[in-house]
Amino acid sequence: MNRLVIATRASDLALWQAYHVKDRIEEVFPEIKVELNKITSKGDKILDKPLALIGGKGHFTKELEDEMLAGNADIAVHSLKDVPTYMPQGLELGAITKRQDQSDVFLSHNYSSFRDLPKGAVVGTTSLRRRMQLLSVRPDLKVKDLRGNVNTRLRKLKEGQYDAIILAFIGLDRLNLLNDIPFTEKLPLSIMIPPMGQASLGIQIVSANDKIREVVKILNDKETFLCVKLERDFVEAIGAGCSAPVAVNASIDKDNITIKSMIGYPDGSNILEEELTSHISSCDNLGRELATIMIDKGASKILSQAEKMAFKDEMPQRL
Among 4, 86, 84, which residue's Cα sits nearest to residue 41? Predict the structure, then answer.
């Protein structure tokens, strides 16, 4: 093999990620020339509606997967949090990169911290997961939808359309965009549990290509792969889509692994939280076990109602 094509979204962050993977592959396999196939996804095209209202799954992945299945790309590089648990036939996750900082970060031009926000402050986020957790702690806030690429979101904050916004730390850090924000604060997991796969890259491959599978092995981090497997197992078992108000995180401490989750309504009510810990040697079904416990406590009903409630203010406009 002397050529490898990466399918990637064309956003600044997606390109950073794709070039990062390109550099790592070329460093280990200098005989391979790596090229990028830049694609605009559905999630990048539709910027006037919350993702939860668009319908379907894989807002940021489908077009890349189609290119792979058509033979126009060998691998796709995704932000793993965007990858649905359902994988199209013929494709698989060949590697998951080492997880970086999973924090969500508070950004503001006027307030030094999340706790300093006054009653009724307007906070921007696209995520139902963030909306749920923010309002569970501060029900006095007004949470408004926030779409657009990272630079567009930061511009809206600077223009004063929001008192604060919440974004993933890792993307801002990779693009060196934090220095221009007067006030930033990483939110602890006690306030903001991340989504499945946050701060990891998912390297998707064509299942039939054994040569590519061997190449991408250099990108895989075994501990991250294990944690993310449990998170994805949980989300699949509980029946949650990519946009559902579900937070789930697995972490390893010495020989033990703990997975914790929170679900609830987008308005921060009806919160259900659980966690399980197991020795790594016997953790294979831990994500599904956690889902079963939460389903027995009413998780399915909560998620069904949460979907009906999601962005209800925008629904008449959409119809």
Answer: 84
Helix (H) or strand (E) holding 317: helix 315-318
Which has the closest alpha carbon to 64: 34, 86, 91? 91
Catalytic residues: 82
- pLDDT reading at 310 higher than 80: no
CATH homologous superfamily of 104-187: Periplasmic binding protein-like II (3.40.190.10)
What is the pLDDT confidence band of residue 319, given thresholds at 50, 70 and 90?
very low
* Tokens encoding 36: 């990028």
Report CA-CA distances (Å) from 316 to 41, 47, 265, 311, 313: 26, 17, 20, 10, 7
Nearest CA-CA partner of 299 in 228, 249, 248, 250: 248
Query: How does the average pLDDT of the chain come out, rounded?
Result: 91
Reported as a single tens digit per residue, the pLDDT across 125-163 is 989 999 999 999 999 999 999 988 899 999 999 999 999
Domain boundary assignment for the chain: 3-97+200-220, 104-187, 221-319
Distance between terminal CA atoms of the chain? 51
- Alpha-carbon distances of 94 from 6, 74, 119, 144, 215, rounded to whole Å: 13, 11, 47, 37, 9
Q: Do domains 3-97+200-220 and 104-187 have the same CATH topology?
A: yes
Distances (CA, A) of 123 to 10, 21, 27, 229: 27, 34, 42, 32
pLDDT tens readout for residues 203-243: 999 999 999 999 999 999 999 999 999 999 999 999 986 66
CATH architecture of 3-97+200-220: 3-Layer(aba) Sandwich (3.40)
**317 C-beta neighbours (distance < 10 Å), count:** 10
Q: Which CATH class is domain 221-319?
A: alpha beta
